[in-house]
Structures are given as structure tokens and as C-alpha cells.
Amino acid sequence: MKLIFEKSVPGRRCTILPACDVESVSLPDSLRREEKPALPEMSETDISRHYTELCKQVHGVNCGFYPLGSCTMKYNPRIDEEMAALPGFAGVHPLSPAQDRKGMQQVLDTAAEYLCQITGMDDMTFQPAAGAHGEFTGVLLIKQYHDARGDKKRTKIIVPDSAHGTNPATAAMCGFDVVNIASGPDGCVDLDALRAALGEDTAGLMLTNPNTVGIFDKNILEITRLVHEAGGLCYYDGANLNAVMGVVRPGDMGFDCIHMNLHKTFATPHGGGGPGAGAVGCKAFLKEFLPHSALAEEPGHIQVRSFQGNFLVVVRALAYLLTLGKEGIPEAAENAVLNANYLMAKLRGTYTPAYDRLCMHEFVLDLSDLKKETGVSALDVAKSLIDEGIHPPTMYFPLIVHEALMLEPTETEGIETLDHAAEVLRKLYHKAFEDAASMHTAPHNMPIGRPDEVQAARKPVLRWKNT
């Protein structure tokens, strides 16, 4: 498919502007461009066809099943978009007079109140622009807490080996040394390894519960107690909050601060570079370190982003909270857990679960035996799913499971979709024994087959150059 710049035809237009009915004002030469911007020139018909063609090449939850583990790619209700598009929200300017921002502030305050109730926190900021940015902010709270007490010796953050990759990166970016601890055979934190890692230099622990392999750690209260006894704080990665929201609260598990991916748990737009929101909550003793907008009534706080963060994302999240209500939030979590266990049960006997026990919102399959017997890898199965109209699950993560496929069906999928997904996965399993060669080259029906993902990550081409 050609880029829109390559389809450009000099002189082609798609607008007819009325004659100017106000005085014309010219900018001084010092403010003018020396060259005209290299914008595509196209007709309205060609523009419409171009973006329609692009749309056909994108797979989203409105196209088919999207079981991307730990990312909670669930359906975003259209009413949330309608609320965010209301002129009073979409048109507000952060520098407008305070009386014109009262509705905006009420949205932020109400969303903070509800999310504090759900997480067991005492205060909340919406400044962070994404989940990873929220992580960074949350760990800085821990750093500031220790620094304010003059406890400079706390230089280490403990991170389990099953953690999301952003956790060790965040800790390192905040200036901490990362201490990696092993998981036990049950996929949970090894308590002996945790005890051995704790000491006077421990600043805190980064953990998500349920964890990355979809298991609720039965020792969570003991884990947070041990960290607190050592003088550290407990940070909750909210990536998997969708499995427990309204059922159990991280604050009650012993966590001191938390970030939430509003796009994963509260049905706001997901991915594509933003806008996102990584709301950060904390217990009362950390409140003084929370970043706040310069427009807030309490000046002097540090900012991690301009103004109030991505406000319209919070509008969407609040609309979702109000739609589901007190009864709907835990029901969504319970259905997410139900769907994951149902799909795992449908695949048991064909595929091997990495941890064959009751899971939460997601589960991990171990395809090591399949690869040994047929040569078909987890990557081959994932790519073959594309030809079946199903988005691939997370591959090769967590690293503690070889040939891993992590599936998260989410609460918004019906039993028919789950049955179809199980049928397709079983079909691909048998196909691995019958026609492994074709699976090595899948997908076959897409514009792009298997791009060089290493080069794409290390040497990305992010813009078009007019040669």
C-alpha cells in the first residue's frame, strides 16, 4: 500500500473555501516559512479511500478476538467517547479562568474519589500520561519519601522475575539498583528469595497481583509485611487490576502506592502512542509527594506533565465507572476471571498450561513440548492465528515460561467467541503435526507476513522522507 504522500498529485484539492470576509493580516517575514510544508495534495474521494484501506488493515476489538495477555484489550463503550466529545469537556482550556474549569475539576475529583475507593488509596493524581509514566511517578514517590526522611541508604528496588519489563526499567530510571528475585514453582514470589533480598538498603518492592502468569499470590499479605518490616514501601503495578477491581483492594493487600492503566481497566483508548493516562494513587503518608497541576489550589507541588494530564481520558474512565456502577465493576472483574478459566479449561488436554491451576484474568500456555515434537514454535502458532481472524496473544512472556503464549480473553467476550477461539487453537495444534511447513511461513493472507521485528525495534523508520 502506498503512503498518502506517494499518492499526492500536485494541484489536487478537496476544499472550497468561501471568500474571506474579515481584514487580511500578513505575518512578518521573520515568522514565515522559507519553504511550503510538504503536505499531500489529494481529492476528498482519494483521502476517504486511503483511510478506509488503512482501516481494513488494522485489527482491533471491533474486528475480532484480541486476547493480548496483560493488556486487557476489551471493548470500549461508545458512550464514553460521546461524553468526552461534549463541547463543555472537549472545548475547555486549562488556562481558562477558574470558574470556567469547575466542571473539569469536578470530573477529576469524582474520578479520584471512585478510584481511591476501588484501590484502597487515599489520594490520586491524573498527571501521568501513560502507565509507564505512572510507574515512574509512583516509584519517585517512594524515592522522595526516603529522601525526605534522610534515609539515603535505601538504594534498591526488588522486582520479581515475572514482572512487566517496564518495572526494572522504571526503577533504574529513578536511580535505583534493581534486585531481581525468582518465582517459586507455583509462579508466585519465592518467600525465601524475598527474605534474602531484603535489607537496610531496600527502598521498596514492585509487584502486581494477580501476577503476570495470572495467579493471585496467596502470600501477598506476608510479602508486603516483610517489605514493610525491612523499612521498604510496596508499589502496586496496576496492569492486572481488571481481574480484581471491586473485589479486593491493593491498599488492603498492604500496598502504599499504585498506578492504574486507565486504558486497560477502565475502557479508555489503548495504545497507538496516546493519549493515555496512568493515574497514580497513594496512602495518606505519601500524599505530600504527589504531583499536582500548577493550576491546583495547592501550589508548590512538582509536576510530571503539563496542566491536568490527559483530561479527556479521565472523562472516558469516569463515564465507564458511572455506567457500570458499584455492582457492575466487580461483575466485570468476575466475568474476566470466568472467561479466562473457561478458555483454559477448553484448551486443557491439547495445550499445556504453564501453571495448571485456577487462574485469574489471564493464563499462560507452554508450547515447549509442541516445538520439540513438531518444530512449530509459539511464534508460528501466534502468526497462524492472524490468518484465522484472531489477534495473536502475547508471545514469549513472561521469560520464566519458554515458548509462552499468554491469553487474556477479558470480560467483554461471549461464550461463542471463546468456543471459536478454542476450536481454532486446537485446529492449529493438530495442524502442527500435519503441515508444520505452512505454519512456519504464516500469516499468508495479510499485506505483511513476518517483518524483521528486531530491526523495526532497533532501527525504526518513523517518518517519510521526500527524496
Automatic annotation (TrEMBL):
EC id: 1.4.4.2
- What is one GO biological process annotated to this record? glycine decarboxylation via glycine cleavage system
> Please, which domain of life does this record's source organism belong to?
Bacteria
Which keywords are on file for this protein?
Answer: Oxidoreductase, Plasmid, Pyridoxal phosphate
Recorded catalytic reaction(s): these are:
N(6)-[(R)-lipoyl]-L-lysyl-[glycine-cleavage complex H protein] + glycine + H(+) = N(6)-[(R)-S(8)-aminomethyldihydrolipoyl]-L-lysyl-[glycine-cleavage complex H protein] + CO2
Q: Which residues form the Aminotransferase class V domain?
A: 151-271
InterPro entries the UniProt entry points to: Aminotrans_V_dom, GDC-P_C, GDC_P, PyrdxlP-dep_Trfase, PyrdxlP-dep_Trfase_major, PyrdxlP-dep_Trfase_small
PANTHER family according to UniProt: GLYCINE DEHYDROGENASE (DECARBOXYLATING), MITOCHONDRIAL, GLYCINE DEHYDROGENASE, DECARBOXYLATING
Q: What does this protein do?
A: The glycine cleavage system catalyzes the degradation of glycine. The P protein binds the alpha-amino group of glycine through its pyridoxal phosphate cofactor; CO(2) is released and the remaining methylamine moiety is then transferred to the lipoamide cofactor of the H protein.
This chain's protein is named glycine dehydrogenase (aminomethyl-transferring)
Q: Which organism is it from?
A: Vescimonas fastidiosa
Organism phylogeny:
Bacteria, Bacillati, Bacillota, Clostridia, Eubacteriales
Instruction: Tell me what gene encodes this.
Output: gcvPB
